[in-house]
């Protein structure tokens, strides 16, 4: 999976109702784990945790869903778990569906945010998918999210207007998306006088709740 595909999967996960029992597996799936890998992990055969209710994938991550308000103490449990070091976990992650905290054990970098906000920080976890991150990549999370949403819009437009994918219409599509990107840029940089002028105008024509193009 590439970064855009991962962003899409993580956004779907965060937007869905929180499912405590399924979260560790859905999270791992979002970062490229195959269905067969998840199935074996669910069976317990490859779950190397020593904590009740936690999921530990060797050489990858130790995850535990906890009760509300217990995220910091649960992260401490994961950090002190002998299985975390023995199984060479690269990350530990705790969440209660309201907040999410994680630590990248290789360099000590930490993440703490609202659960709904973690798609905006998904680049923190890209090494789980074999994608080496550098600061420039980490700082481009919003660009990746914007690219993802434009890609989804492109796909939806072609579903309802298949002729727009023709050679004759391609310049029109390119022109349309260039204008769209400019409008998003103009809104974010306050070239437009009102902060949500463009998205509010677009929303009024499609009869749906306003939503930032970054999610």
Summarize the entry for a quick read:
With 215 residues, the chain is of the alpha+beta class. It has helices spanning 3-15, 23-30, 35-43, 71-80, 82-86, 135-138, 141-160, 170-188, 197-206, and strands spanning 54-57, 61-65, 91-95, 99-104, 109-114.
Mean pLDDT: 84
Could you tell me how far the N terminus lies from the C terminus, measured between alpha carbons in angstroms?
Answer: 20 Å
Order of helices and strands: HHHEEHHEEEHHHH
User: Helix/strand/pairing class, anyone?
Assistant: alpha+beta
Strand count, sense and closure of the main sheet?
5 strands, mixed
Q: Helical stretch count?
A: 9
Structure explained in plain terms:
The protein contains nine helices and five strands. It is elongated. It has 215 residues and is α+β, with helices and mostly antiparallel strands. 46% of the residues lie in helices and 12% in strands. It has two domains: 3-138, no CATH class; 161-206, no CATH class. Strand 4 (99-104) and strand 5 form a beta hairpin. The two termini are 20 Å apart.
What distinguishing features does this structure have?
215 residues, alpha+beta, 2 domains, elongated, 9 helices
Give the topology, please.
Layout: H1 3-15, H2 23-30, H3 35-43, E1 54-57, E2 61-65, H4 71-80, H5 82-86, E3 91-95, E4 99-104, E5 109-114, H6 135-138, H7 141-160, H8 170-188, H9 197-206
Parallel strand pairs: 2-3
Antiparallel strand pairs: 1-2, 3-4, 4-5
